[in-house]
Design goal:
Blueprint lengths: L4 E14 L4 H9 L7 E14 L3 E5 L6 H9 L6 E6 L3 E4 L12 H11 L4 H15 L14 H12 L6 E4 L8 H15 L3 E5 L3 H7 L2 E6 L2 E6 L1 H17 L12 H12 L10 H5 L6 E4 L8 E2 L4 E9 L8 E3 L3 E10 L3 E2 L1 E8 L5 E6 L10 E2 L4 E9 L2 E2 L2 E12 L4 E7 L3 E5 L9 E2 L11
Parallel strand pairs: 3-7, 3-8, 5-6, 6-7
Antiparallel strand pairs: 1-2, 1-4, 8-9, 10-13, 10-23, 11-22, 12-14, 14-19, 15-18, 16-17, 16-21, 20-24, 21-22, 21-23
Helix pairs in contact: 3-4, 3-5, 4-5, 7-8
Length: 452
């Protein structure tokens, strides 16, 4: 096996024997191979692929397509019926909730049990125990039986263990979907760092996550490998198959376009409208259940951070036009993001900015004060406070969690020193949305439909 290959799967199959009645198992034992009292279910059927070191591979498919079975075969928790799997390196996995944990043991005992299964010695686990518990952040519950844990606490501890066992290959199933917003962001930061040095298998129904995270993707269909390659193309094939399974095969061709004369007339009419740019459906949407209600949580100064410490972010708020702090905002409304900081030494040319990220840690948009104050930079004296306010229209977001990471630096856009960067200091959650697809909606100046 080449040292460049992390996983090699060759003609892999896994068959289960399905019995209609419990007594049929007994009859099968008596009859042995002379007669079958069962029917065969091939969860994985003749699958073959190779994953190179350093690749991030997404595995997608409908429920029952064999995704979880394939991951368990790769991890060695299931034995194949036929075929072979060659794995080059230490594998750590986060599969179904609670896998690898003894429910009667405490969190502490399960850390030692689980990490030892990955090949760590007792001394190695003890030296990393504080890091593991800090990452899990479950406090005093570490000494409680894990059968008393919530699903979120289970995931926190399980992920904290696999993040600290020096794995070469990381396998992550859908388990992260039960984590809270802060923890999911922490996991995504870890995964992105891990992707620079290791091999990641990421199983999800979320095609946007696969497209954004992965360098390659595998599509499983009824236990067979239907497609492997570019994540975007694989996701498109999966979505097309999903729609066809619900509404039949697609027979749609490209629709005929409207005449050039009609198209030019409509565009000219729209461009001549110089009214304020608002979504034409705003009043209708905001009076319905599709109104984009966005909850804003409190600033978390204790979130993970880095920097020189010469300055510190002390407050992050979202304000209305009058400067009042908001706990809720409607997507599409004008807001002000306020970032406050204090200098612990004199700082020349301070830069305050932020990243606005989705639940996967993807930066949706970002900005800072650098360009605005490029030719007239401020100077902060020791002990002096500074406030930056960014006035913008809150995007109409898809339902889900988002985060804002603020920072203060010193210097220029190209060459600066980071004094304080706080990951996910402000969490916001969109509870309802008019967004059909994508991450956020662009306000439509007008929408027209007519017959020709």
């Amino acid at each position: 096996m080449s040292s460049e290959i992390a996983i090699e799967v060759d003609n892999l199959s896994k068959c289960y024997q399905i019995y209609n009645k419990p007594r049929d198992r007994l009859w099968q034992m008596i009859a042995r191979s002379r007669k079958k009292f069962y029917r065969e279910f091939w969860a994985i059927n003749d699958v073959k692929f190779t994953i190179k070191r350093g690749e991030t591979v997404g595995i997608i498919g409908r429920n029952g397509s064999g995704k979880s079975t394939l991951l368990q075969l790769i991890c060695g928790t299931l034995n194949p019926t036929s075929g072979s799997i060659l794995v080059n390196g230490r594998v750590a996995a986060l599969l179904e909730l609670g896998a690898g944990f003894n429910p009667e043991f405490t969190g502490r005992e399960n850390v030692y049990l689980s990490a030892s299964l990955y090949g760590l010695s007792h001394n190695e686990i003890s030296s990393r125990f504080t890091q593991i518990t800090d990452f899990a952040d479950i406090g005093q519950f570490i000494d409680q039986p894990v059968k008393t844990y919530s699903s979120g606490m289970f995931v926190r501890l399980a992920f904290a263990v696999i993040a600290h066992v020096d794995a070469d290959i990381l396998v992550v199933d859908e388990a992260l979907s039960v984590g809270d917003a802060y923890f999911v962001q922490k996991c995504m930061r870890f995964l992105r760092e891990f992707m620079d040095r290791g091999t990641l298998l990421f199983c999800s129904h979320d095609t946007s996550a696969v497209v954004n995270l992965c360098t390659s993707a595998i599509l499983l269909n009824q236990g067979r490998l239907e497609m492997m390659g570019n994540p975007k193309k694989v996701a498109e094939r999966y979505l097309a198959a999903l729609y066809e399974s619900m509404q039949g095969e697609s027979n749609v061709n490209n629709a005929d376009s409207i005449s050039q004369e009609e198209e030019e007339y409509d565009i000219e009419e729209d461009l001549s409208n110089t009214d304020e740019y608002r979504d034409a459906r705003e009043s209708l949407i905001n009076s319905s259940t599709l109104r984009n209600d966005i909850q804003i949580f409190r600033f978390n100064p204790d979130s993970n951070a880095f920097g020189t410490g010469a300055a510190k972010i002390t407050s992050v708020k979202i304000l209305d036009k009058e400067g009042n702090p908001l706990a809720w905002v409607i997507g599409g409304n004008s807001v002000v993001l306020e970032i406050r900081c204090i200098a612990y030494k004199e700082i020349n040319s301070p830069i305050l900015g932020f990243h606005f990220k989705d639940r996967l840690g993807q930066v949706l948009f970002a900005d800072n004060t650098c360009i605005t104050y490029m030719f007239e930079p401020l100077t902060l004296k020791t002990g002096q406070e500074c406030v930056a306010r960014f006035n913008f229209t809150m995007p109409i977001l898809s339902s889900g969690n988002y985060s804002i990471s603020p920072a203060i630096a010193e210097g220029t856009q190209e060459n600066h020193v980071q004094h304080h960067w706080i990951h996910d200091a402000l969490i916001i959650e969109a509870h309802a949305s008019s967004v059909c697809f994508g991450v956020f909606a662009v306000p439509m100046k007008s929408i027209k439909m007519f017959t020709v």
